[in-house]
């Protein structure tokens, strides 16, 4: 049997184990995050989402897409997430440089007005780059809860590079561990010095969907039925369009008072 055949399915096995470990070890923290998010949405708050690089993926997974609903605000900065050209303009080098620039997060945060019912979830596998750390610090200074979705092992490995001497985990009210090893890659190949096949995207997306599903259950239990963006293949074209329009209208309503320069949000979240 060739080495390639011998490794067939190994990454999938590793990914499945990650998901099992996540459910077993982080289930309570995910449930706590879901409760905070449900409380926020029911109080007319917004759950803001931030991530750099590949950690933009759980933002897109949360909202907007089929099976999602308003109450979540993806804050994806193109300068740190849109680098599909890899080299040249908008390349990977620039994105990796920018996410390490201290002070940039504050410029992002200046665009928003938060109220006490809002929450920020920061996705960052390594938890050591400046922008995710300072997004968390800035949100806490503004009086809102911060949930970090990160690799605890990576946060604890080596010396923090941020001038504060802290990592993302140090600046969060709640930490959800992605369970991935340092460096993220899961599979060692005979003859190669470094492993391949990262696993963090699987667990980041799992965390996003676990929160989404649990929050929906809590909203319904409280008597609030959110408009879920749904395919016409499921509900028909007319209902699909109606749900789509309702979801986007509700998202716009919630964000209308949170853009800097708009009316100041009421302290009670209204």
Task: Describe the protein.
- There is one protein chain.
- The chain has 270 residues and is α/β, with parallel strands linked by helices.
- The protein has a single domain (27-256), classed as 3-Layer(aba) Sandwich (Rossmann fold), CATH 3.40.50.10490.
- The protein is 46% helix and 11% strand.
- The protein has eleven helices and seven strands.
- It has helices at 3-6, 10-42, 57-62, 78-81, 92-98, 104-109, 130-141, 152-156, 200-221, 232-235, 237-256, and strands at 47-51, 72-75, 119-124, 145-150, 174-177, 185-187, 196-198.
- The strands form two sheets. A five-stranded parallel β-sheet has the order 2-1-3-4-5. It has a two-stranded antiparallel sheet with strand order 6-7.
- Strand 3, helix 7 (130-141) and strand 4 form a beta-alpha-beta unit.
- Residues 264-270 have low confidence and may be disordered.
Which features would summarize this protein structure in a list?
Rossmann fold, disordered C terminus, 270 residues, globular, alpha/beta, two-stranded antiparallel ribbon
């Amino acid at each position: 049997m060739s080495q390639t055949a011998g490794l067939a399915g190994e990454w999938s096995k590793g990914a499945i184990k990650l998901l099992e470990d996540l459910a077993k070890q982080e289930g309570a923290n995910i449930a706590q995050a879901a409760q905070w998010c449900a409380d926020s949405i029911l109080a007319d708050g917004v759950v803001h989402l931030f991530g750099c690089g590949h950690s933009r993926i759980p933002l897109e997974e949360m909202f907007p897409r089929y099976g999602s609903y308003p109450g979540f605000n993806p804050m994806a900065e193109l300068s740190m997430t849109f680098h599909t050209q890899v080299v040249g303009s908008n390349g990977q080098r620039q994105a990796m440089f920018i996410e390490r620039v201290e002070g940039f997060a504050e410029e992002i945060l200046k665009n928003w007005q938060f109220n006490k019912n809002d929450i920020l979830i920061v996705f960052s596998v390594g938890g050591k780059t400046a922008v995710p750390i300072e997004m968390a610090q800035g949100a806490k200074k503004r009086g809102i809860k911060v949930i970090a979705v990160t690799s605890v092992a990576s946060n604890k490995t080596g010396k923090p590079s941020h001038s504060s001497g802290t990592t993302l985990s140090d600046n969060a009210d709640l930490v959800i561990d992605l369970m991935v090893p340092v460096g993220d890659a899961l599979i060692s190949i005979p003859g190669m010095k470094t492993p391949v096949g990262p696993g963090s995207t699987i667990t980041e997306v799992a965390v996003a969907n676990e929160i989404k599903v649990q929050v929906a259950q809590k909203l319904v239990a409280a008597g609030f039925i959110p408009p879920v963006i749904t395919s016409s293949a499921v509900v028909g074209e007319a209902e699909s369009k109606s749900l789509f329009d309702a979801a986007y209208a509700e998202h716009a309503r919630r964000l209308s008072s949170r853009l800097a320069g708009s009316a100041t949000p009421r302290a009670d979240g209204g």
